[in-house]
Amino acid sequence: MMNCIVAQSGGPTSVINSSVFGLVEANKELKIYDNVYAGLNGIEGILNKNIINLSAMDSNELDTFRRTPSSGLGSCRYKLKDSSLCEDEYISLMSILNELNIKAFFYIGGNDSMDTTAKLSKYAKEHGIDIKFIGIPKTIDNDLMFTDHTPGFGSAAKFIATSVLETYLDSTVYIDNGIFILETMGRDTGWLAAAGALATVDGRRAADYVYLPEVAFDKVKFINDVRETFMKNNHVYIVASEGLRDETGSFLTASSLGANHDKFGHTQLGGVAHYLRTLIIDAGITSRVKTLELGVLQRCAMHSASKIDFEEAHMVGRDALKYSAEGYTGYMVAIKRSEGNDYSSSSFLIEADKVANKVKYFPLDWVNSEGNNITEEAIAYLKPLVFDIPELKFSDSLPQYKVFRS
User: Fold this and answer.
1) 157-194, pLDDT tens digit by residue?
2) Any idea which positions bind diphosphate (predicted)?
């Protein structure tokens, strides 16, 4: 008997479960493995033998699971050490996989998950273990190298752009309007904040200013820009990434938060909108400043997901299964955008260790000369990724969801 296993790691997305479904569905069709197992709560769950058999699940439940946001298998932030430093967990993991006759391990995640994929593949090769390890990309941050974009980003971008559009309309209802600041996620990169520029009203961008971590934040210029626009329009709309940094490279909000980090060692941020609000009020521009931090809705708002994103998440899961059958190991399935006016995409493989622990930044040549918005070239890149919405299942007028948890 020959089986495979899949698990999810890191922060959730709206479409991460579509990748799992794509893999399971492809295996039912191609019959490459006898069973598709799943580790609940990532590699940590597998080490705890918290494992279920997806091949035994009801097809209707799986289809509902596919249309469910967040990590339906649970997730973890488990940093796998190098085998030279801690081989015990490698030995334990390989023993568990052998017990289940696992021949392929699929890990859905971002930079750190690709690091895990690369480490496990290397260890298996060095010790003559016949198990293939393949990474399936996922992150709303869109910061994985080599892939045109990441599954999860398009849906987050659509939600952000929709939120900008709706809150812009809300913030302009009065004769005497103020300033509205929307804060997006994005610790290191500005992809999510840039998505706010997609929102337009009567052919004009809703956001007057979009601030990204890639451009050093200039307080004086910010205050001058906001004051000028407010005096002209009696209203200013601002989109800002949580990861904004000053000219020294320090986070604007680091001092107020202290050095909080997650289990991957990433700085935990938030509060940029409040910081900018204080700058505006202290500068005497206006006291009428509202802020909105979108928070986790950016990664679980299935009601505002992108159909393209949903389908591409399915594609990388399906193709990961096919690549494993062809003998590949130590790779991540990446997305390639086809040339031409009509958008389409396909998958290809890239070595996981080339992706691991690296960051794809928002291109500086896609930022305007003033450093406070994005170019039309960037808009052209973003637009196809937010196309349409997937069909959801409903129960009592609310979306119907399904997760598999321990």
Assistant:
1) 999 999 999 999 999 999 989 999 999 999 999 999 99
2) 11
Looking at the structure, do residues 139 and 50 belong to the same domain, yes or no? yes
347 in a structural domain = yes
Say if CB 156 and CB 14 are below 8 A apart: yes
> Is position 186 annotated in a ligand binding site?
yes
- Flag whether 141 is marked binding: yes
- pTM flag (> 0.90): yes
DSSP string, 66-130: HT--S-TT------PPPTTT--HHHHHHHHHHHHTTEEEEEEEESHHHHHHHHHHHHHHHHTT--
B/e letters for 308-336, b = 16+ CB within 10 Å, e = fewer, are: bbbbbbbbbbbbbbbbbbeebbbbbbbbe
In a domain, 85, yes or no: yes
Could you confirm whether 262 is annotated as catalytic?
no
Residues 7 and 102 in one domain: yes
Banded model confidence at residue 263, pLDDT cuts 50, 70, 90: low
Q: Which amino acid is at 32?
A: I
What is the predicted pLDDT for the residue at 258? 46
In a domain, 328, yes or no: yes
In this structure, the answer to whether residues 178 and 218 fall within a common structural domain is yes
169 lies in the same domain as 291: yes
| Any domain includes 176 | yes
Residue of 58, 88, 130, 141 marked active site: 141
Q: Which CATH number characterizes residue 166's domain?
A: 3.40.50.460
Q: Residue 340 sits in which domain range?
A: 3-151+304-359+388-399
111 labelled as ligand-binding? Answer: yes
